[in-house]
Model the fold of this input.
Amino acid sequence: MDAVASRSRRSVLAVPGSNPRFIEKARGLAVDAFFLDLEDAVAASEKERARELVAAALNEGGWGDRIRSVRVNDLTTQWTYRDVITVVETAGANLDCLVLPKVTDAVQVRWLDTLLTQIERSVGLEPGRIGIEAQIEDARGLVAVDEIAASSPRLESLVYGPADFMASINMRTLVVGEQPPGYDVGDAYHYVLMRILMAARANGLQAIDGPYLQIRDVDAFTRSAARSAALGFDGKWVLHPGQVEAANEVYAPGQADYDHAELILDAYEHATTVRRRGAVMLGEEMLDEASRKMALVVAAKGRAAGL
Ligand code: GLV
Ligand code: MG
Done:
């Protein structure tokens, strides 16, 4: 199924996999999706304990209809294969996706796809049930993003990783998600966001914006989210309960836009079927088939958000 149209990911909560208190708290938050992290939010000494905690938390349930993911460690580490095997063998029936961080080429995604297929067969899970979300977090990943996006039918989303990305290109700032000081001629992230969005859309994937680390500044989070939402991104990572409502709002269409989109769909349907016209007027606005497609995007996101 086309991942863009399928499951809503307006807010994607990052939960450190080694912290039972945060895992418990996450169960009560109104996010569309979450991932239990085994990667950068977990200290090296805690990696193994975190695997067990994460698998147990998935099996305990209580996650409602949220999309349940686990972020494994990246493929340059010694942990990845055991992360995948332990989590999927133990809790594969209660898991929707794995997040693969720092993806630099298509081979890495194919490796994960193959390993997942073996585990699914071995433990009797439906073949292909575990999806993959690929994080684009450095220059190599961005340059290879088209191949990465086309590398596996398991892929559901491409996720921008701003912190690692900014470090990898030597961007001169320490504030993740904000414009680097000194660059006063536009949005320093426009190219990166558009590049990821194009690769995602060309392959029917969702495009997810990464975290905003000044977690107490909800206005700044909202501004940052609004930029990627305006381009067409489907959602953003949230790190703190205070960011959840803002993400759910920003990545859903406003009520007036949603109502207008439904009106366009009705008017255009009537025009083509009853009046047999391809172009009609709705008030002062001319509608044609392309207008219908635009309205469909807004209406689909609004319906998914329960408007
Ligand atoms: C997320 O993983 C990031 O690096 O921003
Ligand atoms: Mg990262």
